[in-house]
Design goal:
By secondary structure, the chain is mainly alpha-helical. Helices cover 52% and strands 9% of the residues. The chain folds into 2 domains: 227 residues, Rossmann fold (3-Layer(aba) Sandwich), CATH 3.40.50; 93 residues, Tyrosyl-Transfer RNA Synthetase, CATH 1.10.240.10. The strands form 3 sheets. A 3-stranded parallel sheet has the order 1-2-3. It starts with 5 loop residues before the first strand and ends with a helix. Bound molecules: adenosine-5'-diphosphate and sodium ion.
Length: 350
């Protein structure tokens, strides 16, 4: 099979928030002890939503700073930004020719982001999952820690890998590049792995603090809807105090959270920050009023986030050092990427 390798990325689109931290970055940190990892700042993806941008470079540095501040070891693992490694765009083009338009049209994120005026969305926004598949498969990564919102894109990456492996199976075999793997019931030799998403724990989809039906998002116009990683303790306290809740106390059992999205969300956030489960939180906090639970959540959030916020600020004060890390990471990534692109060109016949 394929050697285990973890890949993930975050877009440099501002307002890095608690959802990004609990759904992604915190998991990166947990995985790095036992796995080889590649963590990317996916700056090419940032162009899909908005073409002309003022500060893509500083936004990119900010995501890199968050990775480092959270404790990712950039010596042991690879930390870089996507646009430095030409293979991402190159492999995405091949994948655009593997993937079918119908696959892209079905993506719920595209439908959400394109809105009603779909004809006016960028072609890049439609092809986004193809570039994401390239990000992952350029390194033949086996595992991708992400939030729940990325599940459908991961399935599409598997569809692309499957079609590539099938369509080129004879060429892959002739070039001696096949790796024994399972595809469904079959045992075959493929070139790309069927990458598994790692979506686990109590905070795979952190919801808006203002609307239990919407996910916490960078692009939400209401700053009160999210806790940003740059928020100070007072701001975190104010946002949690103002978070929407229902009038009931916390339930006595975790089942009692169903049908109570705001309570479920705050308990999930507490559980993820405390490295426990929702049931574990309810065992201790069940029956309490929000007027008691919210201050406990504030204390926990500040305790866990303040060191990261402080470290981010320190790291951001030395942009040249961040650039050095990204450059070195890019060189290391490119060594792997160039090998893959050499293989892919041989397989495709370019
Ligand atoms: P956003 O969705 O905020 O624009 P990205 O698309 O760059 O951010 O996502 C970065 C990572 O953060 C992805 O793994 C994504 O699944 C995760 N993520 C984003 N929002 C949330 C959320 N509300 N809850 C949990 N994980 C999230
Ligand atoms: Na996202």
């Amino acid at each position: 099979g394929f050697p285990p390798l973890v890949f993930s990325g975050i877009q440099p689109t501002g307002n890095l928030h608690l959802g990004n931290y609990l759904g992604a970055i915190k998991k990166f940190v947990a995985l790095q002890d036992d796995h080889d990892c590649i963590f990317c700042v996916v700056d090419l993806h940032a162009l899909t939503a908005q073409l002309v941008q003022d500060d893509l470079v500083s936004q990119t540095r900010q995501i890199a700073a968050a990775y480092l501040a959270a404790g990712i070891d950039a010596e042991k693992h690879i930390v870089f930004n996507q646009s430095r490694v030409a293979g991402h765009a190159e492999l995405a083009w091949i994948f655009n020719c593997v993937a079918r338009i119908g696959w892209m049209n079905r993506m719920t994120q595209f439908k959400d982001k394109a809105g009603k005026d779909r004809e006016n969305a960028s072609l890049g926004l439609l092809a986004y999952p193809s570039l994401m598949a390239a990000d992952i498969l350029l390194y033949r990564a086996t595992h991708v820690p992400v939030g729940d919102d990325q599940k459908q894109h991961l399935e599409l990456a598997r569809d692309i890998a499957t079609k590539f492996n099938n369509d080129f199976s004879a060429r892959i075999a002739a070039a001696g590049l096949g790796v024994p793997m399972r595809m469904g019931e079959e045992r075959v030799n493929g070139y790309f792995p069927l990458t598994e998403p790692l979506i686990e724990g109590p905070a795979t989809r952190v919801m808006s603090l203002k609307d239990g039906a919407k996910k916490m998002s960078k692009s939400d116009p209401s700053d009160l809807s999210r806790i940003n990683l740059t928020d100070d303790a007072d701001t975190i306290a104010r946002k949690i105090r103002k978070a929407k809740t229902d009038p009931l106390p916390l339930p006595d059992s975790v089942e009692g959270l169903s049908g109570r999205p705001e309570a479920d969300n705050l308990v999930g956030i507490y559980a993820a920050l405390a490295d426990t489960t929702k049931a574990g939180v309810i065992a201790r906090e069940g029956g309490r009023q929000f007027s008691e639970f919210k201050p406990a959540l504030v204390d926990l959030a500040v305790e866990k986030l303040a060191p990261i916020t402080d470290a981010m600020r320190r790291i951001m004060a030395d942009p040249a050092e961040i650039d050095r890390v990204l450059k070195r990471g890019g060189e290391r990534a490119n060594e792997i990427a160039a090998r893959t692109m050499g293989d892919v060109k041989r397989i495709v016949g370019l």
